Amino acid sequence: MHAALAIASLIAVFPVFWVVVVSFKPDSKAVEATPTLFNESSVDNYVDVLSGTKGAFLSWFGNSVLIAALTTVLGVLLAATAAYAASRFRFPGRHWLLLSFLVVQMFPFAVLIVPLYNILLTLGLQGSVLGLVLVYCSTAIPFCTYMLKGYFDSIPAEIDEAGRVDGLSPFGVFWRLVLPLARPGLAVTAFYSFIVAWGEVAFASALLSADDRSKTLAVGLQVFVQQNRTEWGHLAAASVLVAVPAVIVFYLVQRFLVSGLSAGSVKG
Questions:
Q1: DSSP-derived secondary structure for 173-202
Q2: What is the reported pTM?
Q3: Considering only CA atoms, which of 160, 190, 158, 153 is closest in space to residue 174?
Q4: Three-point CA angle 243, 186, 198, nearest 5°
Q5: 103-145, pLDDT tens digit by residue?
Q6: A single Pfam family, by name (predicted)?
Q7: Which uninterrupted H or E stretch holds 97?
Q8: What are the angstrom distances between the C-alpha of 93 and each of 89, 90, 98, 225?
Q9: DSSP tag of 231
């Protein structure tokens, strides 16, 4: 069993390792017939990417951070309030609301590009950061709501009753008592919302302005894939830099992920 796990781990890790190796090689040496690990390695690719010689990387990075942060905060806030209402209150249409969250997840996101584009165009938000954030929230909130609803179900309702006895309003109970207990679930949904916005390409390509400095990181990487050739070294270096924030976010929330996923999946 350990040998099988070791082999599976090597298979999973090797592509990432090789991208890191290629990121230190010149474009002409990145796809050699006989690849080598360290010959002609340098940090020139990283210098070119970060200095703006190859694309407006820092502008793309700022756009991605802004969009991902807004999506995470807005998505988790809306999903948490909706999930708490679905968990604690009984109202007409509650069952169909939860069912709709599951149905929405069945549609490929690609088929939503045209209708979402028309909606944003009507609202005057096409090509704006806010419009893209709302689109990402519309894709992240259904899953996050269903996940958090299961997590709130695992928190005893007696806590809510005790808070009301102490004079807290329904929102006060939610904000001061329930949310602190739901940190693992919030961490899972925050991580999911961040990943949805950080690495997405299709919506960002179709809905953002065509200006080079308005692109996100995932869209900006296409600069390194030209019609006649691909700058593999620079593309690999940019890919490594794109992955770093996601790794940092995962490290910050990883201790909550297992408990959050398991608690949100056993009750609903």
A1: HIIIIIHHHTHHHHHHHHHHHHHHHHS--H
A2: 0.84
A3: 160
A4: 25
A5: 877 777 778 888 888 999 998 888 888 999 999 998 889 888 9
A6: BPD_transp_1
A7: helix 94-105
A8: 11, 9, 9, 49
A9: -
